[in-house]
Amino acid sequence: MTDNNQKKDNQDEVSLYEKMVSQTEELVGSGRKTLDEALKRVQDDWSSAGNFTREQSEKISTYVKRDIKHIVDSANKGKTNVKEAVDPKRIGVGAKSIFSRILSSTAETLGDWAKKSEGNLEFKTGEITSPGSLTCKECGEVIHMKKTAKIPPCPKCHKTLYRKSY
User: Fold this and answer.
1) How far is CA 60 from the centre of its chain?
2) Contact of 166 with 133, CB cutoff 8 Å
3) With 148 labelled, which of 25, 26, 81, 113 sits at a CA distance of 20 to 30 A?
4) Buried b (16+ CB within 10 A) or exposed e, 33-56
């Protein structure tokens, strides 16, 4: 068989498939026939008209049944999955789980930011700083720096670590 003949046969089969799907859909959609009855009717009509051989229409009918069964099975599976997915108990538990993960992640992120911010606000005795307030991290004593100067030890507890505020 030449390439052109093979292409023509493939096109004929694809065309037959599309026509069979369309006519079967009309018969089933109208409620007059079941899928098997509709396919049988289309096969008989085509064979008697002489447009296609019985073998051709049976072959294509097999493909149509397979594809329709796959679509129906997928739809039924999807229907079951949707029912499970929208079960109120499942949604409630899922929402709590998601909310918990968001809060945990947010808490970790905020903790990291707080550590970084605190590190940027930590000053030690002997460093030079601009005007602002320094709070001793040990005893809470506040030193008010009125001008840029070296940081002295805490006048109350003599520790050397401060937190700066402006």
Assistant:
1) 38
2) yes
3) 113
4) bebeebbeebbeebbeeeebeeeb
DSSP secondary structure letters along 83-102? HHHT-HHHHHHHHHHHHHHH
**How do strand 161-165 and strand 149-150 relate by DSSP bridges?**
unpaired
What does pTM read for this prediction? 0.41
pLDDT for residue 24 is more than 70? yes
SS3 75: helix
Which pLDDT score is estimated for 57?
Answer: 76
pLDDT digits (tens, 9 = 90+) for 122-132: 889 999 988 88
Give the Cβ contact number of residue 158 at 10 Å. Answer: 12
Residues in the chain: 166
Distance CA 119, CA 145 (A): 20
Longest dimension (CA), the chain: 110
The per-residue pLDDT for 135 is 94
Q: Which residues contact 142 (CB under 8 A, 6 or more apart)?
A: 133, 134, 135, 136
Tokens of 108: 């970790």
- The SS3 call for residue 107 is helix
For 35-48, the pLDDT digits (tens) are 778 778 877 877 77
What tokens were used for 132?
Answer: 């602002």
